[in-house]
Amino acid sequence: DTGVSQDPRHKITKRGQNVTFRCDPISEHNRLYWYRQTLGQGPEFLTYFQNEAQLEKSRLLSDRFSAERPKGSFSTLEIQRTEQGDSAMYLCASSLGVGAKEPQHFGDGTRLSIL
Amino acid sequence: AQSVTQLDSQVPVFEEAPVELRCNYSSSVSVYLFWYVQYPNQGLQLLLKYLSGSTLVKGINGFEAEFNKSQTSFHLRKPSVHISDTAEYFCAVTYNTNAGKSTFGDGTTLTVKP
Q1: Chain A residues closer than 8 Å to B41 by CB
Q2: Of the residues A27, A60, B49, B74, which has the fewest C-beta atoms closer than 10 A?
Q3: How close is the nearest chain A Cα to the Cα of B8, in Å?
Q4: How far is Cα B46 from Cα A15, in angstroms, rounded to an integer?
């Protein structure tokens, strides 16, 4: 178990630029989640995949956000035309199974700062 | 709407003292409950979980939590804290109907002082 890996750990960019984050889940985990965490708050759900299928997207995920999980392995989260309000920690988590009981294993996150 | 309320945003406590971090959730369906810990610049680590059965669950690092269905609470406790327990603690609930998506509270910052 090598854990959930996220890259990069930090990203600083200018407003209006596009950014892409990568998440590598634990290898046998079929579910992958993206959350956003702002200072002083808990993680907020953005989207999740079961294998390669994106099964749910939060209303927080505007049309500037897109996530993919080709082949059901790693996932990418892209933000287009970044805005100041996008500054946050983006967390990826994975779990094994199809129900709601399984705890999620989190990566260390990507911290995005918009100048 | 599904929600989780952590009643204390900050809890300062002296080393070796007991601590309780409080969590309440809204529920109209079956739930699964989790406590996670987050150290600075890291992701969340699972402390413990309640799925079913005994309402008192034990986790790592000497933490335990009690599920109270009538009060819709899941408070976290530790009888004697250490400096190394200083961290952010998050309560999370997963509803049986939503296939694993978790709703988190806003966290409680536990500060253990010498």
Answers
A1: 108-109, 111
A2: A27
A3: 12
A4: 35
